[in-house]
Amino acid sequence: MLTAVLGLVDAVEGDGVGGGLLTAGLWSLALGAAAGTAALAVPRRALVAAQYALAFAAPVLAALD
């Protein structure tokens, strides 16, 4: 939710175009969801760690944009 809010604020206050870091943040959310789904099928600690790392990286990347 925070990533989407940061993206919308950037679109309204900025030039209306999302930058590369915003795109990377949104892809990070998608990859985190895929890692979480994979962790359900094959329980591995690395997949769960990757899911959390990607989930925390998404708003940080969006805020840097």
Description:
The chain is mainly α. Helix content is 83%, strand content 0%. Helix 2 runs antiparallel to helix 3. The radius of gyration is 13 Å and the shape is elongated. It starts with a helix and ends with a helix. The mean pLDDT is 88.
Task: Give a brief outline of the structure.
The protein is mostly helical. The chain is 83% helix and 0% strand.
How would the blueprint of this fold be written?
Elements (H helix, E strand, L loop, with lengths): L1 H12 L6 H22 L3 H20 L1
* Derived structural class: mainly alpha
- Proportion of residues in β-strands: under 5%
Give me the count of strands: 0
Annotation field: number of helices: 3
- Return Rg in Å: 13 Å
| Strand and helix order | HHH
Low-pLDDT residue spans: none
Helix content: over 70%
- Described by the principal axes of the CA atoms, the overall outline is elongated
For the terminal residues, how far apart are their CA atoms? 16 Å
| Assembly of the depicted chains | single chain
Biggest pleated sheet: none
Q: Write down the overall mean pLDDT.
A: 88
Descriptors:
single chain, mainly alpha, elongated
